[in-house]
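Subject: Interface between my chains keeps coming out wrong

I've been trying for a while to get a sensible model of this assembly. When I model each chain on its own everything looks fine, but I need the whole thing in one frame so I can look at the contacts. Pasting all components below, labels as-is. Any help appreciated, I'm running out of ideas.
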Amino acid sequence: MARALLLRIARCYPPLPTSSALSQPRPLPPPLLRRQAPSPLRFVPAFSLPASSVSTSSDAPSDGGGGRKGEEDGAEGGGYVDYLGMSDEELMGQCEMGTFKASGPGGQHRNKRESAVRLKHRPTGIIAQAVEDRSQHMNRASALSRLRTLIALKVRRPINLEDYTPPVELLQILPLKSTIRGKDVGPQIGPNNSKFSPGMQALLDLLFAVEGSVSDAAKILGLSTGALSRLILSDDSLRTAANELRASKGLKPLR
Amino acid sequence: MAWSSVGLDPASPSTSVPFLPRRTRHFPVKPPPAMAMLSLSSRPLASLRPNRPNPPLHRLLRPKPLASTSASALTPPTPLSDPTPPPDADPTPLFLRPATHPAPAAALAAFRRRAAALVPPSAPHLHRHLRWLLAAAAAAADPSSDPALLRAPLGDLEAMWARHVRDRRPFQYVVGNEHWRDLVVAVRDGVLIPRPETEAVVDMVRNVEGFADGWWADLGTGSGAIAVAVARELGPEGKVFAVDVSEVAIEVARLNVQRYGMQDKVEIRHGSWFEPLEDVKGKLMGVISNPPYIPTDDLPRLQPEVGWHEPKLALDGGKDGLEHLLHLCEGLSSVLKPGGFFVFETNGNKQSEFLVDLISTKWSSSFHNVEAVLDFAEIKRFVTGYRR
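Reply #2:
Try treating it as a single job with all components included. I did that and got this:
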């Protein structure tokens, strides 16, 4: 993956002239998301919009261009883009990368590792960043992985319940006792696995389609309501997203 | 400080100076406009160029193996004069020493408290450095073991930390490495710490058609970061000549080449700029250099981490900072093969513009597609071009 990122960077030199709100002076915000901590994310009530028009005003209040409809990468003839199915390189290609830069002459003049990386996913306006590692290389990889999680949490794709079959990414995160989960699906994938995000996205898509009802979603997935609740509660960011979704439908939060 | 947006669109427009048409050798050449900007036009250019390939400046400023407290006229005063040798005089970088010093958890916790207490409120980033220092000093195996195994006695670590906080000794010299691209480059006093801006040089090299099987030279290789990073991308025929005049740099570069197993791809040569490359004249696919480019007059105002601790040899570019860059430009055409590529890092906008103008007018018969390339902070940091 790291290699793919470098290839990506290699093709982008020299950088674009400053073009967006990213260049405005702004203090370094704290990392957006940690799986193990209560999620500081806030969600916009735009669950019904297609992927290309999800905006994240909470992350970039000054960024008017973040969620424009029909941006070049987003809309594909009314279809819904599977961002999480893209390779790191493809996803990176849809991002503007911001680095935390110091003013001044730079180069040999300066000893300061400004290794923070901030990625803005152009089609969705979602912003992910990483600051904690010494290496910008590592921070870039962390930011990209966070971006995948954020896309899973924020980008809703409509489902037609009439002829719905849960995608394999979703089956993979279900507990083994699910009655619709075939033997060939393999072991259950947990929140620390990078393949959890696509499953989480599909689960939230389903939950959105059934108006936030965990029992309805559980029936479709061949699980008891309790088992699906436990799955949702097993990951902080998933729980927060599910509860935001339920709140928007006037339902009580899962605990 | 601000976020700089770096576009990732491969089709992003280049902001380089437009390509200048070829001129014949006898075409009268006017001084480029940038010369006037740098107020050099009153003097023939030759006066800026060293007559000898190895100017006496090199010898005058040759650094001692460890950061010297013997101040030259250029050295800003060091705040604390420490008569005792530093406790970490071991030339092996901390992160590569064996973890043989047990430290009980309680002692480690007490060290952490004392070290954190030294951090001034004005420098909160030092708390992160403390975390990184402990991570570099501890054996990787089990961080929670009691006693922890450290790569230096706790007392030494404490002295090293104090020198970082009080004397502004660069953190990279304390732990002995810098994270650069996907490499962990060993560094120590006497060798320039590779800068994040310079990472882009490797990408430019990789964009050169057929680069992988060419011979490259990294002039003034320092820690060898560029040479190792380029070597790792090369094919079976490819090779890098890593040249440096500093013996410390040669040692450190050798260590880094070994650490990444690039002995077959990187040939280290001791000497000044083109001097050790006589036998490969006209055979190089590319020349890469991040030479000293800071104008001598600017040296006293450098950030203390740089001005007090990094080697002047690697920073001092002489008057206007152009001394070595001009020498490099002059030697290019004789070492590069036709079609060969060069990339130099510079002090930024003015220097790059000056060099682009100079090369594409004075030496237009030898080079084409000469342009200034932006760094991530949108400063014209690099000059690139091709030999005809």
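Reply #3:
Confirming on my end. Confidence is low (pLDDT under 50) at residues 1-78 of chain A.
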